[in-house]
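Aim 2, interim progress. The first record below pairs a target sequence with its structure tokens.
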Amino acid sequence: MRARDRLIGLILLVLAVSVASGCVTDREFRTPTPVVKKAADPVTTADGLRQWWVPDASGVMFVRPPRLQAERYRAYLLEPPLLHFRQLSAKPSRGEAIRLSRNLADVIRRRIEASFGWTEATEPGPEVVRIRVQASNIDFASPDSSSHSRTTALVSAGGLVYFMFEMQDSETRNPLLRFGVRRRLPGGTFNGPSWHELDRARQVFRAFGFDIGPNLESVAQN
């Protein structure tokens, strides 16, 4: 029961941060809160996805029961990943933010194509999966934010990045799979959105790719 409580706590935290964080783009999507129907049931989301266990894999994943049915699809449509920054975070320039989003998109493309063998589509279709990704709680230290309270905030929460990955049927928009995981930014704190900070973000994006890989391969093979 403690394992389940920790699991529910993780996914609730991911979803809460996704809604509460500031965003560098106009777009945003909201994910239904997971609920437990009764103690004997597996964890199920409000929109009908059921928890999918992958031994020794990171993160929490929910899949449309009884399984994904990946063979029904031939291509994927990847929306530009969203990057959400903490309120006190220094913000990268628009160009830097776009490059970071594209870097995360490249990580996702490699994982999708390796796991499912799908090609990338440019528009929705009957055999196309829509993929949406966001990274929340990203925190770049500002040069003028070296106060004790700011340092405490960085140590307690600022170093964690929350990732949410979702697959939908591109025509019906019905959810097929949802995955959430949290990752810590490597390398301590730096000042400003310098190349050090941008490289840390790229590193944590690559780590997310390693996290999601075994999960996608599990549903692709079943």
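The second target in this work package is listed in the same format:
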Amino acid sequence: MPELKEDLLRARPLEILALLPVGILCGVLMGAVTNAINGVVSPAYFSLLFWDWKAQDDFELWRFTIEQGMLEGSVFGAVFSLILMFGIAFISKLRCPFRPGFIVLLKVMAFSLMFWIVGGFNGALLAQFLPQFSNLGLLFNPGEALRFAWVAGSIWGVYIGSLLSTIGAFVSFAAKWRRLEKEART
């Protein structure tokens, strides 16, 4: 966060705008990494998802899941970066430097990844201990059903986590920014 009073008074719309392409790139990276892992965990999930597409082999299916993750990551990165960018611009009155905004973006990504892991565990636990809530046992052997549930749960986890961590980032950033403004006035 800027330390000098002059830094808090200067408008920085281009620095805030720079968060958008960076957020999209972060979303692409996150989508590629999470789908690369999920594609290894449960190829069956993605073969059902893309049932009309005939993969030549498992590697081709895995590569396609990474591409799909990059596409979805770019869309979610754009949406959440826009929301984050406008929120930071509003809270700071267009005065936030790039670095603090980027740190907020990294925190949102880190918490989203944590929710991805928690969602995966929750999906697998739900399939293991409450199988009546899914029909996975009809389609797969028990081990594959757990892996399938991990992937489904992790995807829901990262979606929910992105939303919750963006809201949390706004609350945290607003409190820090108000404190800095107060310190700069004294």
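DSSP finds eight helices and no strands in the chain. This observation will shape the mutagenesis plan for the next reporting period.
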